Amino acid sequence: MNYPLYIFLIFGLSASSVFAVNTSTVDRLLQNYRQQGAHDFDGKAGEKLWHQSFKNPKTGKLHNCTSCHSKNLRKPGKHVRTGKHIDPLAPSVNAERLTDIRKVKKWLLRNCKWTLGRKCTAQEKGNILRYLQSQ
Amino acid sequence: MKTLTLLLTLSLLASGCMADDDGDEGNENSWRFLQKQRDVAAVSNPQYQEECGSCHLAYPPGLLPARSWKKIMTHLDQHFDDNAELEADVQKQLTEYLLLHSADHSSYRRSGRIMRSLNGDDVPIRITELAYFRHKHNEIPQRMIKGNDKVGSLSNCNACHRRAEQGFFNEREINIPGYGAWDD
Question: For residues A4-30, b (16+ Cβ closer than 10 Å) or e, as one string?
């Protein structure tokens, strides 16, 4: 048995778990999604979903994430129904974005239901967060 | 003498500030000549402001009766064809806030008038469908509302009433975007 290696491993493991406690909101959410079976989150797929339109079965209207947010995430959006101004979603220009875990969960739930007509899967949410995070 | 005047002014201001928060009509009279009176109580709950002010202004609770807020708060996942659902604990706290400050629990004059204009068992879920509201807004031409980019609909109170969340709706403060003050 190679004791130094063993000790090194234990140290390494505990250090990484301490690190995990301090990780960002997005990393914590991605970790949750992995526990639900999602993996290999892909910002490109997230970007595609961001621009995809879904037909609302009740009204026949097309719903899209960009109905309220802008196509360019660094620009402000406007709520399609009420006209209210929405600050940019890109963390690079709006440091508050993707920092409050309850807020992110709440809006992904509501906005997926409104846009896609259903909840997003863990994989879809992870992809979207990767995309938003990169902006 | 100077000090006395200063003291008097200060105490008047202080009593005014208190009336500002508690919504007591009696107290508010002393404030009246310093500042035009509020029509309904200001939104006073930061959580309500955050949760119910993200898609539109946070409507002051004194604009609808408790039974209306109750109905609105139990159907948040189907909220005017939008989804405004909340976690159960937040939903409960905000419902309590709304019921406690609803038009039927407020002594502000505009809340009183709204209540008097309702039929006994009406449960309106829009402020804009109240008879009292319709009556106050029926002279405004559509080009200033629907045809106005910066307004869009009458639900957008703060487009014209700049201090709507603070509870001020008096005519002298109205500023319709692109048209300015209102004189009828």
Answer: eeeeeeeeeeeeeeeeeeeeebbeebb
pLDDT digits (tens, 9 = 90+) for A61-78: 999 999 999 899 999 999
Of A84, A106, A109, the CB nearest to B56: A84
Q: Would you kindly state where each structural domain of chain B is located, as residue ranges?
A: 40-126, 139-184
The confidence band for A22, taking pLDDT boundaries of 50, 70 and 90, is: very low
Q: Is the ipTM of this complex over 0.85?
A: no
Contact flag A82-B155 (C-beta cutoff 8 Å): yes
State the best of A110, A111, A114, A119 to mutate against chain B, taking most chain B CBs within 10 Å.
Answer: A110
Write out chain B residues lying below 8 Å of A109, CB-based: 83, 85
- Could you tell me the fold of the domain covering A3-133? Cytochrome Bc1 Complex; Chain D, domain 2 (1.10.760)
Q: How many CA atoms lie within 13 A of A14 on its CB side?
A: 5
CA A62 to chain centre: 22
Residues whose CB is less than 8 angstroms from the CB of residue B51 and which lie 6 or more positions away in sequence, other chains included: B86, B90, B94
Beta strands in chain B (DSSP E): none
The full set of domain ranges for chain A reads 3-133
Partner-chain contact B55 A81, CB within 8 Å: yes
Q: Would you state the pLDDT for residue B120?
A: 82
Q: Which residues of B fall below an 8 Å CB-CB distance to A?
A: 54-57, 77, 80-87, 152-153, 155-156
Q: Are B148 and B177 in contact (CB under 8 A)?
A: yes
